[in-house]
Amino acid sequence: MAYAVIAHYRCAPEDTELVRRSLLLMREHTRAEPANLEYVVHADAEDPDGFVLYEVYADRAGFEAHAASDHFAELILGVVRPRLLERRVTFAAPL
């Protein structure tokens, strides 16, 4: 069953461009993962330093493989998360 992830990120203004570039690079890597069905990076329409990610994986195991990948460690854990002021993640499955 598909497994969705919706993440809301907000960073400081001086980090916005680096976070944006890192998320777009992450998108390229993630879309090549076998279990990834969708990975969309949005700019928050109400916050110039905010981002919304919408990700869909074939199943939870696919997401867990994504979270264990080298590119996740490098880009998300190494670059993006240390620069976030706020982070909210929702995991969901279709009804």
Task: Describe this structure as you would to a colleague.
With 95 residues, the protein is α+β, with helices and mostly antiparallel strands. It has a single domain (3-92), classed as Alpha-Beta Plaits (2-Layer Sandwich). Helices cover 37% and strands 36% of the residues. The chain contains three helices and four strands, in the order βαββααβ. A four-stranded antiparallel β-sheet has the order 2-3-1-4. Helix 1 (16-31) runs antiparallel to helix 3 (70-80).
Task: Give me the secondary-structure topology.
Blueprint: E1 3-11, H1 16-31, E2 36-43, E3 50-57, H2 60-67, H3 70-80, E4 84-92
Antiparallel strand pairs: 1-3, 1-4, 2-3
Helix pairs in contact: 1-3
Overall domain count = 1
- Coarse morphology: globular
CATH class category name: Alpha Beta
CATH architecture: 2-Layer Sandwich
Q: What is the element string, with H for helices and E for strands?
A: EHEEHHE
pLDDT averaged residue by residue = 97
Content of β-strand: 35-45%
Give the CATH topology: Alpha-Beta Plaits
Largest sheet: 4 strands, antiparallel
- The low-confidence parts are none
Q: How many DSSP helices? A: 3
Q: How many β strands by DSSP? A: 4
Computed over alpha carbons, the radius of gyration is 13 Å
Descriptive key words:
4-stranded antiparallel β-sheet, Alpha-Beta Plaits, alpha+beta, 4 strands, 37% helix, 95 residues, globular
